[in-house]
């Protein structure tokens, strides 16, 4: 919706032909922009509090660039692109100012570093091999206006490493626990912390880990209270959910 459309809608409310509730419904339901290969939802932020996120896998570099261009036309900030290849990053960077993180394969366009929630999110990893998923979660949370604490390589094989950061865990409003292998980290963190824990199983591990299925089942069967689980390697989903929880107590503005 452009400014003229918005002005027309407001005038309709002023003249009494639309009630404020009807106008609000119109704003929530429209519009989107049809690019042929994608329908860009420009009112995602109005409905859900955050702009549409671009899933890069399976899209051509030109398609990603076109979606980004459409979002920039609507003055979107912190445009997040997940699972983005280096090839796509090269193409997109020719059209806009792209900040690309190769390990998690995350791109950010028109990044504005702004914290809008009073609490913090801790991202905790079992090992360095989980780093890509951790950074996807951390960068997602940061793009959505959160302060993120990174506590990496503190798996249960050396529990003293985790306990050395217990004060940082206790200060967090939400914790994202990322681990592969048997996925025990989430249960340990859930038994120590007094805040929600979002467990992220990763596909890291030997054959019997079944590409993350073992960690997923372990986390789903956790006896620690307050632990919820997202899909295997879904750092984005964890970061987004953590941001929603962190903003529930109000924003800094």
TrEMBL record:
Pfam families named among the record's database cross-references: AIRC
InterPro entries in the cross-refs: P2CMN_synthase_LarB, PurE_dom
Domain of life: Bacteria
PurE domain ranges (all copies): 119-251
Family matches, as Gene3D superfamilies: 3.40.50.1970
SMART domains: AIRC
NCBIfam families assigned to the protein according to its UniProt record, in alphabetical order: LarB
PANTHER family: PHOSPHORIBOSYLAMINOIMIDAZOLE CARBOXYLASE-RELATED, SLL1489 PROTEIN
Protein name: Nickel pincer cofactor biosynthesis protein LarB
Gene that specifies this protein: larB
């Amino acid at each position: 919706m452009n400014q003229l459309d918005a002005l027309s809608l407001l005038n309709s409310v002023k003249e009494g032909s639309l009630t404020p509730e009807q106008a609000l419904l119109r704003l929530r339901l429209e519009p989107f922009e049809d690019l042929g290969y994608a329908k860009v939802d420009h009112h995602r932020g109005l409905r859900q509090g955050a702009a549409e996120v671009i899933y890069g896998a399976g899209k051509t570099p030109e398609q990603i660039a076109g979606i980004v261009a459409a979002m920039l036309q609507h003055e979107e900030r912190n445009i997040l692109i997940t699972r983005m290849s280096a090839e796509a990053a090269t193409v997109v960077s020719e059209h806009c100012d792209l900040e690309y993180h190769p390990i998690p394969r995350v791109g950010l366009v028109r990044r504005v570093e702004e914290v809008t929630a009073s609490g913090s999110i801790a991202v905790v990893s079992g090992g360095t091999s989980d780093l890509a998923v951790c950074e996807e979660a951390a960068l997602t949370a940061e793009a959505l206006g959160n302060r993120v604490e990174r506590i990496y390589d503190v798996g249960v094989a050396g529990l003293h490493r985790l306990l050395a950061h217990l004060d940082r865990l206790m200060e967090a409003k939400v914790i994202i626990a990322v681990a592969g292998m048997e996925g025990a980290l989430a249960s340990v963190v859930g038994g120590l912390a007094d805040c929600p824990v979002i467990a992220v199983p990763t596909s890291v591990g030997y054959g019997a880990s079944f590409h993350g299925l073992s960690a997923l089942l372990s986390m789903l069967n956790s006896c620690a209270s307050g632990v919820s689980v997202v899909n295997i390697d879904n750092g984005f989903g964890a970061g987004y959910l953590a941001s929603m929880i962190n903003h529930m107590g109000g924003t800094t503005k």
